[in-house]
Amino acid sequence: MTEPDDLPLAGITVVAVEQAVAAPLATRHLADLGARVIKIERPGEGDFARAYDASAHGQASHFVWLNRGKESIELDLGSDRGREVALALADRADVVISNLAPGAMDRLGLGATALRARKHDLVVVTISGYGDAGPYTHRKAYDMLVQAESGLCSVTGTPETATKTGVPVSDIATGMYALSSIEAALFRRERTGRGATIEVSMFEATAEWMGHPMYIRMYADRQVGRMGLSHASICPYDAFPTRDGQVLIGVQNDRGWAALVRDVLGRPDLVDDERYATNIDRVARRAEVDALIGSLTRGFDSVELADLLDGAGVPAARLNDVAELVDHPQLDARDRWRNVQTPGGPVRGLLPPMTFTDVELPMGAVPALGEHTDTILAELGLRGPTPDGTNDSTREDTHHGIA
Questions:
Q1: CA 82 from chain center: how many Å?
Q2: Order of strands across the sheet that contains 95-98
Q3: Looking at 29, 62, 231, 400, which residue is catalytic?
Q4: pTM as predicted
Q5: Which of 22, 143, 268, 279 could connect to 168 by a Cys-Cys bridge, CB 3.0–4.6 Å?
Q6: How far is Cα 54 from Cα 77, in angstroms, rounded to an integer?
């Protein structure tokens, strides 16, 4: 059985002024790793991701996904009482993370400079759309907008249609960089006693993920095309037809090409064919190669072909939908599903993907809005209700959400 002190971040307290996806993803992982995460929410409304949908026992799917293991306190940060409580929480915390609009935390008296003046070893992380300087600083920066502005949509989709990704990758990239920077700052603090002020920009996080197409643009002077399931620099790399469907094949090198055509498709003559001998040759003749491979894969059933490819060491996959992911035999074989408690009843959740061999990471309950308000106030010696209602200064729109 897992003991709390065995968890990697046991004893770490995180205060989160967060909404939507980017910061909540980072703090949910911190909670999974054993940190205590106290989520500050607007009275009566809370994180607006609570209202995205009602798919999971009447609760929003995003909120259930991103907020397990946290404690919820309702605070009106526009009031003196709300700020008093927030400062008391920060004084006891190891990490404060926020993803409000640029400058919102400073205007509330809760910015990094103010907080670290009170507690020098505090780690303060601010997530923004475009950073705290430059001509785009105050632009809205929802996930779709950042994907478009960063060029990600220009390399995603089909030749005819640019698309955003099916999951909010700009938010996810930002949340994961925030997570890794927090862990690094805490590790440095163990050695030096120094806290940290950290900024993570959605735009810069997504731009980092654009490294491959950026280098092709800068040094080969060409735009990477939208390739659908294919790949701009590798061939064959696509979905290929079978008698009863299709199978994805991704040949990464010339050895893989030889195994595909010789061992799976029964065409050893193609191994040394000068038209297809190297990946560069195959990419130059992509349409020809794809048509050739497709004409050969049509003679197989999907399961038969997938088994042959696997046996030959050729990378391949089925094109699953989400139902097939939920029922995937690999998740069952590795016992990855657990029940997570929520105010609407238990839901299934996947264990965190970072697997420690000596301890199972916890999957705490998803909190109801304000569920822990009284308990936390009592801990702080600030018993009594917080003010209800909000005012303009608390309605700082987040720039980091779904679109």
A1: 30
A2: 70-74, 36-41, 13-17, 95-98, 123-128, 196-201
A3: 231
A4: 0.88
A5: 143
A6: 27
User: What are the pLDDT digits (tens) for 248-298?
Assistant: 999 989 999 999 999 999 999 999 899 998 999 999 999 999 999 999 999
CA distance 358 to 4: 12
Report whether 41 contacts 69 (CB < 8 A): no
- Three-class SS of residue 162? strand
The DSSP annotation for 383-402 comes to -SPPPPS--GGG----S---
Which residue, 213, 261, 269, 215, is CA-closest to 235? Answer: 261
Residue of 4, 12, 402 lying closest to 190 (CA atoms):
12
97 exposed, middle or buried (CB, 10 Å; 0-12, 13-18, 19+)? buried
Active-site annotation holds for 29: no
Strands 123-128 and 196-201: parallel
3-state secondary structure of 38: strand
Residue 7: phi, psi to the nearest 5? -75, 145
Q: Which helix (H) or strand (E) holds 205?
A: helix 202-209
What phi-psi label fits residue 69: left (phi over 0), alpha (psi between -120 and 50 degrees) or beta?
left
**Separation CA 397–CA 100 (nearest Å):** 6
From CA 354, how far away is CA 339, in angstroms rounded?
18
In angstroms, the CA 143 to CA 149 distance is: 10
Torsions phi, psi for 279 (to 5 deg): -60, -40
The model's pLDDT over 146-189, given as tens digits with 9 standing for 90+, comes to: 999 999 999 999 999 999 999 999 999 999 999 999 999 999 99
CA 202 – CA 48 distance, rounded (Å): 19
- Number of Cβ within 10 Å of residue 360's Cβ equals 15
| Two tokens, residue 203 | 């735009």
Both structure tokens of 206 = 């997504």
> Residue range 17-29: average pLDDT?
97
Closest CA to 368 of 39, 61, 12: 39
